[in-house]
């Protein structure tokens, strides 16, 4: 049993270290995809901003209200779309700024503010890449150690549970 635990122990440690090495690459690709969305939203809003500059003193909110207060449902729908673009610009901009930090702060930021749709799209196109930057290696080591400790704790609980059953069987048989 000690041999099996030792084997699994090393497999878990190495797999967790590799996963920890790949996370910084995923964050970089997530950030690039986020930057692309931010650029696209900015370009889409640029056209509306030109209309707002010409007809509404440069105020996008006045343009949006003009659309939303129109009796024409098509125009109202367009106002909703423009408002969604503005909301996305703000959301993507805040996320982009939040990800321009150290690796540990990026991980902390994403743990609280992950855009699941963006993460899924990033994962679908993810190309594994490992970073050898000191903070990335430190993170990988800490991540591997944490996963390894959890594995060891679960193994201990399992052995206590199974060991307790064996002792009860021996008592019954005796």
Can you tag this structure with a few keywords?
174 residues, single chain, mainly alpha, 6 helices, 86% helix
Topology (SSEs and partners):
Blueprint: H1 2-55, H2 60-68, H3 73-98, H4 103-113, H5 116-124, H6 134-173
Report the structural category: mainly alpha
Helix percentage range: over 70%
Poorly predicted ranges (pLDDT <50, ≥5 residues)? none
Strand content: under 5%
First and last CA, distance: 25 Å
Mean pLDDT level:
89
Structure description:
This protein has about 170 residues and is mainly α. The protein has one domain. The chain is about 85% helix and about 0% strand. The chain has 6 helices and no strands. It has helices at about 1-55, 60-70, 75-100, 105-115, 115-125, 135-174. Helix 1 (about 1-55) packs across helix 6 (about 135-174). The chain is elongated, with a radius of gyration of 26 Å.
